[in-house]
Each structure stands twice: as C-alpha cells, then as structure tokens.
Write a structure and sequence with these properties.
282 residues, alpha/beta, Rossmann fold, 2 domains, seven-stranded mixed β-sheet, 44% helix, globular
Length: 282
C-alpha cells in the first residue's frame, strides 16, 4: 500500500467513524483490508482504494470502516465496573426510580454482545428486587457483523472462558456442538441496533446508565470532547457514565465529573453530588 493510499484510508475511516489510525498502523490496515479485497474479487489494495476514490460506494465504505474497527470484548470485562453496577449504581437507582419503576441502560459499543449480556446476567441476579420494574438495555455498535453475532448469542469455548464465571455459564448457556448459546431469556433483555457515535443520538431518549467503555481511546481529543458533551445531554441528572480504565473526562469536558473513590464512574452535576447520591441511597 502506497503512503497516499494509506492516508486516503486513514482519512476515510476517521471521517466515518472517528477512529484515528496512527502512521505505524499501516500493517494493520493492510491485514484487515486484504480479506475485503479478496471478497470483492479485486487483485490489490490499490484497486480497492481506486473504487473508494471514485465515490458512490457507500456499502464498500461501510465494509472498510467495519473491517478497521476493534471488536475486542469479553464477559464481565475488568470486573470492577460490573461490581459498581450491581452494588452501587443499581441500589441507588432502585431508590431514586421507586416511583417510575423504570431504568434505561445504553451500551454504546456493544461489539459481539459480551458487555450488554453481562449486564443482563447481573440484572437477573436482582430479579426479586426488580419485580414489577421495566429495565431496558440498548446495545449499539458500528459493526453489523459484530451485531449479528451478538444477536445470535453464540460464543466459542475460548470466548466463554474469558471472564465468565463457571456458575453463570452453567446457568445461562446451552452447549450447541462446539459453541455455547446464551439463554433466550437473556437475549430478549437486550435490544441491538446499528449506530455510529458520530451521529446524533438524541432520538434514543434519556438513559440512567451509559457504558461507553474502551471507545474514546480510539478518538482524537476533539472527537472525545464532542462525544462526551453529547452523552451528557442524554443521561439523567442523577445518572451514570462508565468509561474504560484508560479513559477519563478530565481535561476533555466539564459536563461530567469523576465519582469520588469510584474509578471509571462519572456523573453530571456539581462536585459532591456523588457523595450525596450514595448517602441518600443507602
């Protein structure tokens, strides 16, 4: 791939998805796009780039962008956010939403579904407390291929061994030959939808909890700020934003503030709101 072709792909991917590909990622671009070249019956990456440059190939552009996205995910990834969800966030929301009896959760980068399904399993553990409640999980991603796998709920032995406690595997999965399928009850708890975070998401409504983990690390500073500010408009005043371990709002926006002593959780509002929130929820 020539430097010019590489720059064209980098700019296309950045414009369409916000994903920033550094100069040393050329090998990654080549390895991920070669299967697209073969599937399209083309001879070289240069031919693929020429097709894209001619314009009018929206489907091909989408395929290229999807090929460059990272769909790395596993069940109960990093553990701590899910412990916070079960032990801190949900108890606070159960008290705060006692009248509405409705909670809305958004996983902004669902990949192949492990994160939203982990949340669904955590909610099943609170089945008694949530009797009569309506809890919605919206899971979105920019990859149609990943979403297809998520909807099917089919995972390899390797995938179910990554972070999934054995008791949850036994309780919520059925083995189908060499793969495992998550139970229909859990699949029905999650609504999957194709979505690009660069687009307007106000039509989704307002959420009590937003998981936007390991997404911002792929964006430049301006895009991070833009996404965070727009997320602030769709989270309730007493809601929660959870980011990845390597992500933060500090230096990017004042629309969210870190939760004191709760790594990875951010809330809208004035300093001290988090302390008051948990104190009144206990």
């Amino acid at each position: 791939m020539t430097p010019g072709d590489f720059d064209f792909i980098r700019n296309l991917v950045r414009q369409r998805s916000g994903l920033v590909l550094s100069a040393e990622k050329q090998y990654l671009v080549e390895s991920r796009l070669l299967p697209v070249v073969r599937k399209r019956g083309l001879g070289t990456l240069a031919e693929l780039v020429r097709m894209l440059q001619l314009g009018g190939a929206a489907t091909l552009e989408t395929t290229v962008v999807e090929a460059m996205t990272t769909n790395e995910s596993f069940f109960f990834r990093d553990k701590l956010p899910f412990e916070y969800f079960s032990n801190l966030i949900m108890p606070a929301l159960l008290k705060a939403r006692a009248r509405e009896r409705r909670i809305r959760i958004w996983c902004t980068a669902a990949a192949t579904g492990q994160e939203p399904y982990s949340l669904a399993m955590a909610l099943l553990d609170m089945k008694a407390e949530l009797a009569g409640w309506r809890v919605e999980i919206l899971a979105t991603d920019i990859s149609n291929e990943a979403l297809g796998k998520a909807r099917a709920g089919l995972y390899t032995q390797f995938e179910v061994q990554r972070g999934l406690p054995i008791q949850k595997l036994v309780a919520h999965f059925a083995q189908l030959g060499e793969v495992w399928q998550i139970a229909p009850e859990i699949r029905s708890m999650v609504t999957y939808r194709y979505f690009n975070l660069l687009e307007d998401f106000t039509s989704f409504g307002v959420f009590d909890v937003i998981f936007c983990r390991n997404v911002l690390i792929y964006f430049d500073q301006a895009t991070k700020t833009n996404v965070l500010n727009r997320l602030a408009r769709v989270v309730t005043n007493d809601g929660y934003l959870l980011l990845g371990a390597a992500e933060t709002v500090v230096g990017l926006t004042t629309a969210f503030r870190p939760m004191p002593e709760q790594r990875g959780i951010y809330i809208p509002g004035e300093p001290g709101a988090a302390i008051l929130r948990f104190a009144t929820a206990s």
